[in-house]
Amino acid sequence: MSDETGKKKNGITPLSFLGSLFAAWFGVQSEANRQRDFEHGKFSHFIIGGIIFAILLVVFVVIVVQIVLKTAGS
C-alpha cells in the first residue's frame, strides 16, 4: 500500500502535467517539478502537449488579430 501511495505522490497527474507544460513554456519551471517530470513523465506526452499548446497559441493570436482588424476598420 505504501508503494502505491508513493507512486501517486510522485506521479504526474493531468493537472500537474498542464502546470508543468505552462511553467516550462514560460520558463518558470521549478527544479523540483522539473526533476519529477524527468523521472515520472513520458517524453512523448510533453512533446505532443507542447505542439498542441503552440498551435493553440498561434490560433489564439490569429483570432485576436482578426478581431482587432475588424473593429479598427469600422
Tell me the layout of helices and strands.
Layout: H1 2-10, H2 14-26, H3 31-40, H4 43-73
Strand content: under 5%
Q: With helices defined by DSSP (H or I, 4 residues minimum), what is the helix count? A: 4
Provide the structure class: mainly alpha
Helix residue percentage:
over 70%
Keywords for this structure?
74 residues; mainly alpha; 4 helices; disordered N terminus
Please explain how this structure is put together.
The protein has 74 residues and is an all-alpha fold. It has one domain (2-73). Helices cover 85% and strands 0% of the residues. The chain has helices at residues 2-10, 14-26, 31-40, 43-73. It starts with a helix and ends with a helix.
Structure described in brief:
This protein has 4 helices and no strands.
